[in-house]
Write a structure and sequence with these properties.
The chain is mostly helical.
């Protein structure tokens, strides 16, 4: 390692470069695999794989329930009526609950 102190900015840049490098490597390997599969299967076989993959992604998108969205939406409604200048959990919201 270097003798220079490890500043937060330096660590951030180093970690970001690790993440970026790993994504580039992963995507490059995926592109090579895609080319090999397409060459091996030919246009017809590769078309079948593409259709199956698109159906799988579509069904996953339809049935992927993101429960956190419901929690955020309905928990905010439990806090009381919305007001443009008041956030849930703010002191104003606490005062409004105390008056109710």
């Amino acid at each position: 390692m270097s003798a220079l102190p490890d500043s937060p900015l330096r660590r951030l840049l180093r970690n970001a470069s690790y993440l970026l490098g790993s994504r580039v490597l992963r995507d490059g390997m995926g592109l090579v695999a895609l080319a090999l599969v397409a060459r091996h299967l030919g246009p017809g076989g590769f078309g079948v794989i593409a259709l199956l993959q698109s159906y799988t992604f579509t069904i996953n998108w339809l049935v992927n329930f993101q429960t956190w969205q419901a929690i955020v939406r309905y928990a905010a409604e439990l806090d009381g009526p919305s007001h443009p200048n008041r956030r849930p959990g703010s002191p104003e919201a606490h005062d409004a609950r105390q008056r109710a």
